Amino acid sequence: MMHPPQRSVELTQVTEWNQGTVTAVQDTLAAEEPLEIRVDGSPLAVTMRTPGHDVELAAGFLLTEGIVKTRAQIAGIRAAAPHNGNKSNVVEVELSSPVSERVPLERNFFAASSCGICGKASIEAIRRRDLRPLEQAFRIDPDLLCRMPEELRAQQAVFDRTGGLHAAALFGETGVLVLVREDIGRHNAVDKVVGWALNEDRLPLDRHVLMVSGRGGFEIVQKALAAGIPILASVSAPSSLAVKLARELGLTLIGFLRGQRFVVYSGGFRCLPEAAGRPG
What we know:
The chain is of the alpha/beta class. The chain folds into two domains: 33-125, Roll (Ubiquitin-like (UB roll)), CATH 3.10.20; 142-270, 3-Layer(aba) Sandwich (Cytidine Deaminase, domain 2), CATH 3.40.140. Helices cover 24% and strands 32% of the residues. The strands form three sheets. The chain has a six-stranded mixed sheet with strand order 5-6-3-4-7-8. A hairpin with a 4-residue loop joins strand 9 (166-172) and strand 10. The longest helix has 14 residues, at 186-199. The two termini are 37 Å apart.
């Protein structure tokens, strides 16, 4: 199992009631702090996140929000040095061309850990992004899909200590686990995975499966699409808007992936036998 990054957990004193016995105990909490993303010296976004892999998070955010499309468009990216002994909660990005050519500076983002990009436009905004078409030839065996939740759960180091984090995992076409990232926000965990791939020049992730530990919401679907990921699976249910977006843009969307069962909401041709029904 991977070790949690520094600052990803905090200790606190709590009072536990257990079958009539009251005890003072030390508890471990998932850390939550704001991260400011600055582009070319100007604040662009603030997200509430679990500290750790902040540069990946910022890079993934830039890609999944359509500010950059390739690693070459990022001239430099780094976590700002701590000031006067305080924690560093800023990532500074320098683009190879001015940000104003890609996104209006007045379009400030605020991402809460629970909601993704608040006020995000609907499917029409995704259509206008001119995203690359998803890989049509990629297939994965249902048995491989069914092994993924256990693989993901085994690598959730911070969750094991706190019980309070989401996770996103990237699997290869043979079902091998490539990467796991955790965060108090589902969308942040996904951005950390995508940011890793962007920084490693591994995009598009067109022969991979993305699995998330929570629900498959609209913001998760649009981030998978931006990274070129053809299959998105979750242990819970997707939202109605997520299903609509997945069906329109050809993403294989899977929910309730638990044990030997899953539900396919769109793109069943990538994971179901030829004779099976294929919604979407």
